[in-house]
Task: inverse folding
């Protein structure tokens, strides 16, 4: 497994932007797909965005498509989630995750990710 530490969460107003970071250690992300998930109070964890191991393919939940962008920096072994036009419904704890096997595709199935960060809180007020 890889150790993941998220940062960059905080308080925002509707329409603001935030950039989440996820620093990885213990495994290079060069050959692993990564993803961001979120969990709002009283709700199940949901998929937000995924990035192929090569970085060229991105998938998004419909609710964030066009507003969020996932990327990574292999030299820094880090994954990012740039969030624009934030909405109150984006309020949640955001988690980054890494697929269990190298070269697998990113997807929305949380059980196929074997490494998770501790999460970072994002709160968006109206």
Result:
């Amino acid at each position: 497994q890889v150790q993941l530490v998220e940062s960059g969460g905080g308080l925002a107003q509707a329409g603001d932007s935030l950039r989440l970071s996820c620093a990885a250690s213990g495994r290079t992300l060069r050959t692993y797909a990564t993803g961001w998930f979120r969990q709002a109070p009283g709700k199940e964890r949901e998929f937000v965005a995924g990035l192929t191991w090569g970085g060229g393919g991105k998938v998004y939940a419909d609710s964030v498509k066009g507003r969020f962008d996932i990327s990574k920096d292999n030299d820094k072994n880090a994954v990012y989630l740039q969030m624009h036009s934030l909405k109150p419904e984006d309020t949640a704890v955001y988690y980054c995750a890494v697929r269990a096997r190298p070269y697998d595709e990113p997807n929305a199935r949380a059980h196929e990710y074997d490494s998770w960060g501790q999460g970072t809180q994002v709160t968006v007020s109206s």
